[in-house]
Automatic annotation (TrEMBL):
<dbReference type="Pfam" id="PF00201">
    <property type="entry name" value="UDPGT"/>
</dbReference>
<dbReference type="InterPro" id="IPR035595">
    <property type="entry name" value="UDP_glycos_trans_CS"/>
</dbReference>
<comment type="similarity">
    <text>Belongs to the UDP-glycosyltransferase family.</text>
</comment>
<keyword id="KW-0808">Transferase</keyword>
<dbReference type="InterPro" id="IPR050481">
    <property type="entry name" value="UDP-glycosyltransf_plant"/>
</dbReference>
<dbReference type="InterPro" id="IPR002213">
    <property type="entry name" value="UDP_glucos_trans"/>
</dbReference>
<dbReference type="GO" id="GO:0035251">
    <property type="term" value="F:UDP-glucosyltransferase activity"/>
</dbReference>
<protein>
    <recommendedName>
        <fullName>Glycosyltransferase</fullName>
        <ecNumber>2.4.1.-</ecNumber>
    </recommendedName>
</protein>
<keyword id="KW-0328">Glycosyltransferase</keyword>
């Protein structure tokens, strides 16, 4: 009889990464009855993001999650600011991870620990795995093309002694193996690359990925065939397992407050009254917010475009949460919108704060999505066949926007190089143009997105590309 095995998952704090971790854990458990998973939870010291309620909602003894255990790590203080502060905060948990794994190994359980599966920003935990003589795997929550870019930048830094921060104000067009088209470096490289200290942290992640036994990537072969081929043909990169799309598409109202559950119900009732494919949905992720000048341009762009709309509008963060940037809902939207906007658009539009994004994208009334191009949001839009108009903010979102528009032809452009806090105001004319393009009923892009939607669902089905890839990973951990 095959001996039971246990994997230690270590996500970064934040509801998005924890949900993705739980979803891939559930997939693994559904494929191997001898597998158990422990997820070690870090928490930010200054904000509540719904993680506790989400984890509590999983306590169903009849579900696949009964073989998942959660362990809260002792809380650390957040020192510093920005990307460097965040990366340092993650590394400060290494001793707590060691203590948690020591408890597991000393528990007397006959279940063998088969390895660590770490978030893309948790490479410091490879040191802990090495202390226990355990293999490490990375769960890369973005796409394969972006992963290839990280490896490329790390290689030119370490092998060609190139200072990547010099790309910030350059006209360089980067030839990257995981992309078909050259990348306009200053426009689309992640902002972290342009800060010397943060850049070194960032590229050291890629350097450490090379030490692992494999990379689980939240993508699927049919979506990123070129990027995946480029990664698999590089002998210096560990095996890559495309296992996506890893999504939480079965929305659960137990995961949100009763107030948000009511908000969701009101939003869906409003959508029920709209014709199919008639509504453009604007939502910019958990950190997406704009200043008043940009809000007014969006409002004017919406009015000129003339489509029904559902707009998730949130205010910039203040106080301790501004370190990470979690926005909150406006108490009164009329204080920031153009005078009379709500009255003029009352028949065709709805302005909201928090948005149940998955439920909205799944609704047949939604025909287009103005998005920040976070990878989870990108995969959700593809899953439901809703075309995107790109408006990235930070992190790798500019890279994702470039890939969607230029490489995959699955999106239209409002702006692929926009950066949060850049001071740039996107004009109402560009917003109007992007909305009109994304809402075209018979466009080639809409057809391509619908086809890719079908492929995304087939990838996870029995004998699909991601189904088979996950099987290869399970074989690897069982034989290690």
């Amino acid at each position: 009889m095959k001996k039971a095995s246990e994997l230690i998952f270590i996500p970064i704090p934040g509801i998005g990464h924890i949900v993705s971790t739980v979803e891939i854990a559930k997939l693994l458990l559904s494929r191997d009855d001898n597998l158990f998973i422990t997820i070690l939870i870090m928490k930010f010291p200054f904000t509540a993001d719904g993680s506790d309620a989400y984890i509590k909602s999983l306590a169903d003894p009849s579900s696949k999650t009964q073989r998942i255990s959660f362990a809260n790590l002792p809380q650390e203080q957040f020192q510093g600011t920005g990307a460097t502060g965040f990366f340092t905060f993650i590394d400060s948990h290494k001793s707590h991870v060691k203590d948690a794994v020591t408890k597991l190994t000393d528990s007397g359980s006959e279940t063998r620990i088969a390895g660590f599966v770490i978030d893309m920003f948790c490479t410091g935990m490879i040191d802990v795995a090495n202390e226990f003589g355990l293999p490490s795997y990375v769960f890369y929550t973005s796409g394969a093309a972006d992963l290839g870019l990280m490896f490329h930048l790390q290689a030119i830094r370490d092998e060609e002694n190139k200072d990547c921060t010099e790309f910030k104000n350059s006209d360089a067009e980067l030839v990257v193996p995981s992309f078909v088209n050259p990348l306009p470096a200053a426009r689309v490289l992640p902002g972290v690359v342009f800060d010397k200290e943060a850049c070194n942290f960032f590229l050291n992640f890629a350097k450490r990925y090379r030490e692992t036994k494999g990379l689980l990537v939240n993508t699927f072969l049919e979506l990123e065939s070129h990027a995946l081929q480029s990664l698999s043909s590089d002998g210096k990169i560990p095996p890559v397992y495309p296992v996506g799309p890893i999504l939480n598409v079965k929305s659960n109202d137990n995961q949100v407050s009763s107030e948000k559950s009511k908000q969701k119900s009101d939003i869906l009732k409003w959508l029920d009254d709209q014709p199919p494919l008639s509504v453009v949905f604007l939502c910019f992720g958990s950190m997406g917010c704009f200043g008043e000048d940009q809000v007014k341009e969006i409002a004017h762009g919406l009015e000129k475009a003339g489509f029904r709309f559902l707009w998730s509008l949130r205010q910039p963060p203040t106080g301790p949460t501004s370190k990470i940037g979690f926005p909150s809902d406006y108490a009164d939207y009329s204080t920031i919108l153009p005078e009379g906007f709500l009255d003029r658009t009352a028949e065709i539009g709805k302005v909201i704060g928090w948005a149940p994004q998955v439920a909205i994208l799944a609704h047949p009334a939604v025909g287009g999505f103005v998005s920040h191009c976070g990878w989870n949001s990108t995969l959700e839009s593809i899953w439901y066949g809703v075309p995107i108009a790109t408006w990235p903010f930070y992190a790798e979102q500019q890279v994702n926007a470039f890939e969607l528009v230029k490489e995959l032809k699955l999106a239209v452009e409002i702006d692929i190089g926009y950066r949060k806090d850049s001071g740039v105001i996107v004009s109402r004319q560009d917003i109007e143009k992007g909305i009109k393009q994304v809402m075209e009923q018979d466009s080639e892009i809409r057809t391509r997105v619908k086809e890719m939607s079908q492929m995304s669902q087939k990838a996870l089905a029995d004998d699909g590309s991601s189904f088979s890839s996950l099987g290869r990973f399970i074989d690897q951990i069982q034989s290690s």
